[in-house]
Amino acid sequence: MHKYRVAATNTCKECQYCSIGEFRFNCQGDNAGSCEACATPIANAHHTTWGKTHNVKESCDWSCNAGYEGFGGTPNRPARCVMTKAPTTSPTTSPTQNPTTSPTKNPTTSPTMSPTTSPTKNPTMSPTTSPTMSPTESPTPKCHVMNCMNWDCADWCECFDEADEETYASQPGCQDDGDDSCVCFQEEGDEYMKQITEHMTRHDKIHYRQYQKHKVVCGRHNPHQCTEHDRWEADVNALHEVRCCSDGKPSPAVPSMKHCANPNSPGPKPLDGWKGVLKSDNIWGMSKVGTEGDKCIHAATFAEAEAVCSAIDGGRLCTENELKNECTSYTGCGHDLDLIWVKPQMIGVNTFTNTVTVHSQNPHAQ
User: Is the pTM of this model over 0.90?
Assistant: First the structure.
């Protein structure tokens, strides 16, 4: 909880809460701060919360307006709002022509004064002794085309059949929503591709999928002194520190930023020297990426961190490889000892063999 000092009484007081669509600005020291408008939400959306992160205008959540559906992003921050594709197909065409002209003028003035005092004395003595002996033995199979609205990404990879595309297009919840985050694929030379028998399901025919995983990485690795290990972060609304990278020197310059081609100026050398496909002479690392106060951001969700970095000229989240190569160490805010949001990584899964592959990171991939 942020607090400020009341000079007249020399006591601390909690900073004020703000209204929906506003964030708390510059509440620190002897300043009570103020509530300022959050950044405008995406098209066809409205704010649903006040700013969760002090001094960060992009910290308000949003939701789609009535008549629009959210896709991508998170439940509290959809990436885009698309007009509902399946409105009521048969709205009422003939409203009541003759509404009641004489509603009851005198409702009952004397309700029953003596409700039943003697409930049934002889309830059924012989309840059903033989319940249905043959309940439905064949519930709708998972991969039945009419069950498509209940499929998740893995189910679509397993169950999709080109022959049923017209049915998918006609079913709400199964229609193409333009979200490309679920990808099913077969690799060239796949040894299982042609080994299909009558006993195999579609799970065996299309058994690869890929998806994004989020990660937080220590701000410095030589030496690694964070109290926690680098890890996958399942909760995109968890709060972590923010550092950014930029492709090209940003304008205006960010205080204390450094050129990643010389990560030990200032800072330590990478443990094993610069490795990987991401070496570049034109990447800059930085920590003072906020807009107010000391410009440090000590707590942000993944979406907030991504928005902060995107607001910088050429800015983006750093890759894990860049942080491990000391691209942002010694750039300020004390984040060398903190876990930092990094660019998500694509994970490939062979659901037939349960083999997991972490794909090389492209800093410019969407």
Answer: no
Beta strands in the chain (DSSP E): 3-6, 11-14, 22-25, 34-37, 45-47, 62-64, 68-71, 80-83, 183-184, 208-213, 215-218, 231-232, 244-247, 258-259, 283-286, 315-316, 339-341, 345-350, 355-358
In the listed set 83, 110, 137, which residue is the last one of a domain according to the structure? 83
The number of folded domains in the chain is 3
| Tokens linked to 23 | 């964030």
User: Is 99 within the bounds of a domain?
Assistant: no
User: Residue 22 corresponds to which amino acid?
Assistant: E
262 contacts 285 by C-beta, under 8 angstroms = no
- pLDDT for 333-356, tens place per residue? 999 999 999 999 877 766 566 677
Give the number of other CB atoms < 10 A from CB of residue 147: 16
pLDDT (tens digit per residue) in 122-164 = 665 665 555 555 555 556 787 888 888 888 766 776 677 778 8
Q: Is the peptide bond before 363 cis (omega within 30 degrees of 0)?
A: no
